[in-house]
Amino acid sequence: MNFPASVLLFLGVAGATQAAVQTDIEYGTAAGVSLKLDACVPDGPGPFPAVILVHGGGWTAGDKDGGKNKGYMMPMHDPLVAAGFAWFSINYRLAPQHRHPAAVEDVETAIRWVKANAAHYRVDARRIAISGESAGGHLVALAVVRANEATRVAAVVSFYGVFDFATEAKRRGAAIPSFNKLFGRDTLDDTMLKLMHDASPMNFVKPGLPPFLLVHGTADQTVAYEQSVSMQARLRAAGVPCDLLTIKDGPHGMLPWPPLSPDFKEKVVAWLQATLPATAAKQPR
């Protein structure tokens, strides 16, 4: 995947001033749980493009603030704001207490909330993307293939997500605790296979989806790199634009990537800049 030098140069010098992060904003409630997000909007009048960020953690753990290691989606926070993006980082209900489809339903609630509050946060509702890593990479892809008009976004970036549960389970050849907790099943029986089928974004790819960027390391031992290769092929076969950013020798998780691919964050942001619709022209008074 190649990026124009001019785009990368722009990202290096744009430098919008970062506003303070607003934490623990309630974006909804579900099953008695208050759903919270953190928000960061650049200084200025906007309207800004925005990215909804969805953390990983095997559907059973993780946090919107990056956790003690400041991982998950947090490495993307500063590059997004520096390039003039707002971001909204969400928490969602976790398994095993809340099984599928609770988490993806919360992602959909967050999309609706950001759209409804776009004017308040100086966000351009036409230029909202969604991005997640690991379990979050699966959830954002699933939300996109399930979307209706209220939950449709303009672009999706998925870092090392599971797109076909059955293929991944077969590859590992053993029970996968996170899968079992997500679906509430301990055996790979017909019921479990049906649950995995219905939660696999690859099975619901269709024409008309927004553009995808898949980001994956070739040395990922948690989610096979082939998941993203196969998802790209399926999307392109349906006529959906899809790029794949490969991190050579990259393991699962972004934190070890900078020595392997120093500019991967800038490439992701450049892709968003190039893919999202252009800013609407201001109407003369």
Can you walk me through this structure?
The protein is of the alpha/beta class and 285 residues long. The chain has a single domain (5-161, 206-275), classed as Rossmann fold (3-Layer(aba) Sandwich). Helix content is 32%, strand content 20%. The chain has helices at 5-13, 77-82, 102-116, 135-146, 165-172, 177-183, 190-198, 225-237, 264-275; strands at 22-30, 33-40, 48-54, 86-90, 123-133, 155-159, 212-217, 242-247. It has an eight-stranded mixed β-sheet with strand order 1-2-4-3-5-6-7-8, with helices on both faces. Helix 3 (102-116) packs across helix 4 (135-146). Residues 4-16 and 281-285 have low confidence and may be disordered.
Total strands: the figure is: 8
Q: Flag low-confidence runs.
A: 4-16, 281-285
| CATH topological fold name | Rossmann fold
Element-by-element helix/strand order: HEEEHEHEHEHHHEHEH
Which CATH first-tier class would you pick? Alpha Beta
Shape estimate? globular
Give me the CATH superfamily: Alpha/Beta hydrolase fold, catalytic domain
Reported for the largest beta sheet, the result is: 8 strands, mixed
Arrangement of strands in the largest sheet: 1-2-4-3-5-6-7-8
Structural class: alpha/beta
CATH architectural group: 3-Layer(aba) Sandwich
